[in-house]
Amino acid sequence: MGSRTAIHLAEIENDGYTIIENVMSDDLMSRIREELAPYCQGKLLGRNNFEGTHTERVYALLAKAPSVAEIIEHPATLALIDQLLPPNYLLSAALSILVHPGETPQPFHYDDGIAGLPVFKPRPRFGVSTIWAFDDFTDTNGATEVIPGSHRWAEDREAREAEVVKVLMPAGSVVVFDGALIHRGGANTSAADRLAITPQYCNPGLRQIENMVLAVPPDVASRYSERIQNMLGYNIIEPSFMGYVDGVHPKKLIDQSYQGRKYRPELPPS
């Protein structure tokens, strides 16, 4: 593990987040913007103050903007996430967020809550989120706002405005944060848009926020790397067999020639 990686990991453990500056190329940003353009025409604004009534969100990104895969599996972030989550972790969500002028602050929230289950903070880490900046995150254009240290708080402790820290970073940068960190999208009081993409990752035994194997069906998933396919859910949890489909490895859905592993008595044949 490199010294920079160790520093970023320490910041996540202590503050709940870390910023990696200038790791996305101009070429990649341009390609992703071009692929997103047909879905960002100012017609499908948010349905409530969480999505943002002056914000356009694009879901199922890997079915619409294939270059997004390059940030989902970017080595700068995976070097951290590989240390923060168990092996075989999943892509829980991946969406773009285009915040227009006039947007108000989101409600405070954290990303890795488990709906319907009595599992409260503080607790083991369930997920890690990232937010990639396609425009400079400034003091006025809706930069993400975080509450440092709140990933360690008890469930009933509420965030106060005085505790807010704005995540200010240049375009091409990414903030990586613990899924339990309290945060929100800020108000956009500027005259410019602010675009970001947020891939979120979760423990392999949890249900993903977005149903990825429906959002990115087998014929689309087959175009991506094995790492992306595994994060979508076309895999099983080793050494168990959680995730199988009709008794076989889900890789069969995207690769008919996949031979799988040799049969062992404790596993179904693949």
Walk me through the structure.
This protein has 270 residues and is α+β, with helices and mostly antiparallel strands. The protein has one domain: Jelly Rolls. It has helices at residues 3-15, 26-36, 69-72, 75-84, 212-215, 218-221, 226-232, and strands at residues 17-20, 55-58, 90-99, 127-133, 144-146, 165-166, 174-178, 183-185, 194-202. The strands form two sheets. The protein has a six-stranded antiparallel sheet.
Brief characterization of the structure:
The protein is an alpha+beta fold.
Would you spell out the secondary-structure blueprint of this structure?
Blueprint: H1 3-15, E1 17-20, H2 26-36, E2 55-58, H3 69-72, H4 75-84, E3 90-99, E4 127-133, E5 144-146, E6 165-166, E7 174-178, E8 183-185, E9 194-202, H5 212-215, H6 218-221, H7 226-232
Antiparallel strand pairs: 1-7, 2-3, 3-9, 4-7, 4-9, 5-6, 5-8
